[in-house]
Amino acid sequence: MCDHLRAHFSAEVSEMTPAELHEAVRMAIARARVYRLTSARDICRFLNLCAVFGWEFDADETLGDVLRDTRIANPSVRLQRLYARCVRRLEVEEQNERMQAGAPQ
């Protein structure tokens, strides 16, 4: 997973030493398991979110609440919904930046 993050999220993890990244990944995987995320795909997606939104992004109420929503029984479905929300958040941020820069939409 550390190699994956270095390859796909190099800017986000570039200042972390190998030991720091390994520990962050280990801790994130432990938190993912609390949400009953166990498949390699789910763990990878959770780590992707950690790299982009911060290693403890799930402490944010608006994001973490999706993972804790017991009305959705399947943890993978909760993660899918969270992932979609995060992608949408990034799209809105990019659109806002373009608008502030005066770029056409």
Written overview of the protein:
With about 100 residues, the chain is mainly α. The protein has one domain. The chain contains six helices and no strands. The protein has helices at about 1-10, 10-15, 20-35, 40-55, 60-65, 75-100. Helix 3 (about 20-35) crosses helix 4 and helix 5 packs antiparallel against helix 6. The radius of gyration is 15 Å and the shape is flat.
Specify the structural class: mainly alpha
Main sheet: strands, sense, barrel: none
Order of helices and strands: HHHHHH
- Described by the principal axes of the CA atoms, the overall outline is flat
Mean pLDDT reading:
92
Low-confidence stretches: none
Distance between the termini: 36 Å
Indicate how many domains the architecture comprises: 1
In angstroms, what is the radius of gyration? Answer: 15 Å
Give the total of beta strands: 0
**Helicity, in percent?**
over 70%
Number of helices: 6
Question: How large is the share of residues in beta strands?
Answer: under 5%
Topology (elements, then pairings):
Elements: H1 2-8, H2 10-13, H3 18-34, H4 40-53, H5 61-67, H6 75-101
